[in-house]
Amino acid sequence: MTELGIPILPSLRHLSYVRRPVVSTFSMPRLSHITGYGGLLPVGIGLLSQLTHVTLHLLREDATGIEEFANALHRMTNLKDLSLNLQGCTVSVHLLPMDTTAFPKPHSVHVDRLAISIADEMREYSALLFDALVHLRPSIYELCLKRKGMDPDMFLRPSKNPLLLHSHTIKIHTPARFDPLEIVERLTKVCSTVRMVHFDTPQAEGLIRLFAELLREDAWERIRSIRHLRFEGCDLFSEYTVEVLANNFLRGEAKNGPQCLEVISCKKISEDFLCGLRDEFGDNLKWTL
């Protein structure tokens, strides 16, 4: 573009790049969206304060760029949507621990949406990345764990993933087998802001924790602080599971307004069964087959 004598791109809104972008020689006054493949955004580029939407696809990245990326994030003062897709990223031993003393205070910067997709375990890399992002306070936090063999416990414990602590809506996508009610109960113990939890989890097992330990009423009171529970594609859920969940979640006193239990495309749940439940719970029960 420079060779063509075009240093100004006055109408460009969306920029895609492979590896690191070289944009310091261009003027792009309307640029707001960036999609990157194979490299974190460096702090040295201009225009960071203009960006509202950033999507990065990182394949076999080393963690050497995380601290610089964190500093770049702090300059994105208008950021609304951040999406990170990680695969095969690594951490060198000499990088641990990462110096976070200059980072903003945790949960001090609001964004509309933060989405993280993780294709491998990458525990150390993920931990460093969570530390770099912890200043963000997303209204919607989406976490996608792509492999069946991944241990969701590593990413779904607030003590290990502090990004869970201050989100209004949490969406969890994973093919791994786990008990969603255990996640919900764990969240409500430490997070007072969450109002909706959405599970897109075909291997989610029924309410194992409920049947194994018979949750006490105080646990259900905490769970009812969530206004909306959505279960999508939970193909192992039985009708009995949904009935028990409805009887405990939709009954009793709700702390934050009307409750909603939503069931979407769960193979073992029939419409006749849901219609029968709706006679009892009305519009608090929703479904899509």
Report the portion of residues in β strands.
15-25%
Distance between the termini: 51 Å
Q: How many whole angstroms does the radius of gyration measure? A: 22 Å
Count of the domains: 2
- Low-pLDDT regions: none
Order of strands across the main sheet: 1-2-3-4-5-6-7-8-9-10-11
The main sheet comes to:
11 strands, parallel
Oligomeric assembly: single chain
Count the E strands: 11
- Give me the number of helical elements: 8
Find the structural class using helix and strand composition.
alpha/beta
Proportion of helical residues:
10-25%
Order of helices and strands: EEEHEEHEHEHEHHEHEHE
The shape is elongated
Please, what is the average pLDDT?
82
What is the topological layout?
Layout lengths: L13 E5 L14 E5 L15 E7 L6 H9 L6 E7 L21 E10 L4 H11 L2 E10 L6 H5 L12 E5 L6 H11 L5 E5 L7 H6 L3 H7 L4 E5 L6 H11 L10 E5 L6 H11 L3 E4 L1
Parallel strand pairs: 1-2, 2-3, 3-4, 4-5, 5-6, 6-7, 7-8, 8-9, 9-10, 10-11
Helix pairs in contact: 1-2, 4-6
